[in-house]
Amino acid sequence: MNAPSKSALRPSHAQAIGWTGFLILGILGFTWGSSFILIKKTLQVFDPVQVACLRLSITAIALAPVAWRRKAIVQWVRWPYYLAVGLLGTAVPAFLFAFAQQKVSSSVAGMLNTLTPLFTLVLGIVFFRAKVIWAKVLGVSIGLAGAAVLILLGQQGALSGNIWHSLLIVLATVCYGANLNVVASCFPREDTLTLSAVSYTMVGLPALAMLGFGTDFVQHLYADTHSALAGLGYASILSMGGTVIASVLFFKLVQQTSAVFSSMVAYLMPVVALGWGLLDGETLTVFHLLGIALIMTGVYLSRR
To answer: Exposed e or buried b for every residue in 60-93, given b needs 16+ CB within 10 A?
Structure first.
């Protein structure tokens, strides 16, 4: 579910796209699009703080050896920027999605997550002096209109709680957008695996300590071992598949094909999220279709 760094979206050499490129694209769309149903399932076992800490902890455990082995090439004097990438790219969104999906369906969460490229553009223009192109501004406007439809009309009338919970997801996409701009501005030539390993370990190890000593996770594990292990399994798939493995696959896809082809994963994610939601009994209305259609139109226009 984590958004790919903008440094990974730089155009690569033009190459013929073989079947492996389409296979990797499909795997990525399925993996990242499945993140939202996995969050939903994990929330059925653990509370939002535990879910977020589990995601961060498992990711850090997986990537800490990489960070340790590459510590000699890390520019530690720039640790605040590494920390910013960790916070904006994974830590803060992990908590926001966990709390939001207590009231927001996994399919709607997947649709709203598609706002990330739109906020990347907006923040790039406002804070990073990106060039203003009015066709892109129009795309952002249409996309935000689609988000408003989803938030205001796509929640089966239960507006009081779901509006605010939906806005938590919007805030998470703002974090993702800010992170992409930070990476592009501060780490234009950084090795992406090293950057991810260091940044995610910096925020994941404190989350691991919080999980063990600041929550009742251990007691829960002993009190209801069967359900806790199931929830731990969902969180492990979410962390290892959606963050660690998917990131490596995405960077490989960019190198083998092109930035434009790789960015098509953004169009597959909400489709997968919607499919999982329907299989899990979530309701689809005409407002959901209208909202996601507007958002995807906005994303398309903003990327032209």
So the answer is: bbbbbebbeeeeeebeeeeeebbebbbbbbbbbb
